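Appendix B. Worked example

We walk through a single record from start to finish. Start with the input: the chain for Ribonuclease P protein component, Solilutibacter silvestris, length 152.
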Amino acid sequence: MPSPADARQFPKSARVRTRADYTCAFDGARRLHTPLLQLAVKRDATADSGARLGIAVSRKVDGNAVGRNRIKRVWRETFRQQRADLPAGSYVAVAKPAAAQADNPALRAALLELLARAARLPSPAAVGTMPPDTSSPSSSTTDVATDASISG
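Next comes the structure step. The output line below is what the pipeline stores for this chain.
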């Protein structure tokens, strides 16, 4: 039985880590924006690991590594606290240059706003474009063939 401390951790399975993961997360993702960040959301109904987070903060956003790490730390902690309430899928936060001047509460509020909007997005469409046809039972065609062979 997991302890309450385990529920608060941020395991590797909850992170978007490799280039292939990022590429997959961006392909076909919905993008949401605020002045501080862009959030790419790709729902995955089959994900066993739940919601996963990836963060990208480039040197163009803040030339100082301390500033880039502060942005990532605030967003990682915010996501960790909200993860259980989010639909399964990949969430990739990309910082915009304005994020470097924002204080921690503003960074947190921007991510929370986009996560709330992402949770309201419609679920991905089911596989296929047409619903199954239930109007004509398949047994009626076999009955016709059977009746024709009996009368002949």
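Two observations about the output. The longest helix spans residues 65-82. The longest strand covers residues 37-43.
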